[in-house]
Design a protein that fits this description.
Elements lengths: L9 H8 L11 H5 L5 E7 L6 H8 L2 H4 L2 E7 L3 H9 L5 E5 H9 L4 E6 L11 E5 L15 E4 L5 H11 L7 E4 L5 H7 L4 E5 L2 H7 L3 E4 L1 H5 L6 E6 H6 L1 H20 L1 H6 L1 H4 L4 H5 L13 H13 L17
Parallel strand pairs: 1-2, 1-3, 6-7, 6-8
Antiparallel strand pairs: 3-10, 4-10, 5-8, 5-9
Helix pairs in contact: 1-12, 3-12, 8-9
Amino acid sequence: MRTGLKVTALAAVATMAAACGSDGGGDSPAAAGGSGELTEVTVNIVPFTPNAVLFLAMENGTFERNGIKVNIERAASPVPVVASLVADQAQFGFVTTPVLINAAREGTALKCVSPVDGQISPTEDSSALVAAADSGIDSLDDLGGKSVAVVQLASINLIGAKKLIEDTGATGTEYVALPFPQMPQALADGRVDAAVITSPFLEQALDAGAVELAAPSSDLFPEGTVYCYAATSSYLGDNADVATRFQKAMQEAIVYAGEHQDEAKATLVEYLELTEEQAQAQVMPSNFVPEINLESIGEIQDLMQEQGSIDSTVDPAELVFQP
């Protein structure tokens, strides 16, 4: 039986997180890192609303208290993120669970170090499967023979959309890889019939008349781990202390952000170039539990095998960094 992996005791994390919003309290860089110098790391992200937790931890000193300075790079999808990790251009990077599984199966050893913002909320989602305005599509079974944009082929979005659509009996759906920022215009132009799109681009599509059909992640994987910040096994082997401090900082930040969501959303003004009104309107799709859910990783892997995208599996426990 698969079990969830609790990366830290929640009570302890909550206590540590109490200091996240102030200059006092918490470990100093010297205490966290063994010296007064900060360890610089690059985190490669795919820009979307849940990154607000990382941004907040950068802004309020959470990383600094753990002896780390974070620089960010941006990518269009998790695949180039993996390439940057393998090339040592970034130390940590955003990956979805299917990308993590595929990398492991293909001989690229990656491990989840931290959730991005917690587990997927059962009731709140920042991504959705939407149909283009005036397309006449108003239910999942209308997507048979239609085109659906996903951020990459082999993404968590494709797996979820395919499951929901095929469960209606619809067939012949075509999936097209398209970066999130291009999806609203592609829908408006009629170049695709539907898209699995995430905030802040989801709001643009909905404002233009797109019709929401489903929320694949929260519908299928409530309280699951569908994405994380990962690192290569080789980096983790040589830098376990840095990874442990990064993990600890993210755990503190996730709990703190859950209690200060407006503060987290405010960081999106600078980092995602939203207006203050747009930033505060964003949905944080998390339960803010800093726990990597091994059971959900296994469920996603089983679904990938069922859909024929993989022909073998890996042990989910091997995909998670444990200090």
